[in-house]
């Protein structure tokens, strides 16, 4: 039985845009080596904090699902979505598990977000359609527990699968929009 390697970063490490290394696209990283796969996955995680998805090496047919809902297809939709990550302040406790044979990396980490005052509904996209996401938690800081799987071929991300859970006060509901609840029940 093969075991995936794990890269444990020290508790409390936060990624900030100015300290980032060159992206895999800039370095020409296209092998199935552990270092290349992890660099490609980390380029996505770094983009969450920098709010700039333009440096992520994405395949033209890339697809991203989050909590059972496909929320972006293709490079343009994914890159544009990073402009809406301004609430992300930092990441911490990043752990990477690589499967070299499959060309996959699973990243498990904490995402620290600050929901500004104003709340209400946010319009977002799922594929080619827009839908309203009800913001059911009050303004404030939250920790999102994330697990993301990246399928990487020749240095480009083809699939992103996200499972996210927001740590929130009791009795506020799941925070999932109706569309996601319906998608999960199918």
Describe this structure in words.
- A seven-stranded mixed sheet has the order 1-4-5-8-9-2-3.
- It contains four helices and nine strands, in the order βααββαββββββα.
- Residues 1-22, 117-121 and 125-134 have low confidence and may be disordered.
- It has a single domain (5-185), classed as Roll (Nuclear Transport Factor 2, Chain: A).
- It is of the alpha+beta class and 186 residues long.
- It has helices at residues 24-27, 34-50, 74-81, 178-185, and strands spanning 5-8, 58-66, 69-73, 88-99, 104-115, 121-126, 129-134, 140-153, 156-167.
- It is 20% helix and 43% strand.
- A hairpin with a 2-residue loop joins strand 2 (58-66) and strand 3 (69-73).
Structural topology:
Elements lengths: L4 E4 L15 H4 L6 H17 L7 E9 L2 E5 H8 L6 E12 L4 E12 L5 E6 L2 E6 L5 E14 L2 E12 L10 H8 L1
Parallel strand pairs: 2-9
Antiparallel strand pairs: 1-4, 2-3, 4-5, 5-8, 6-7, 8-9
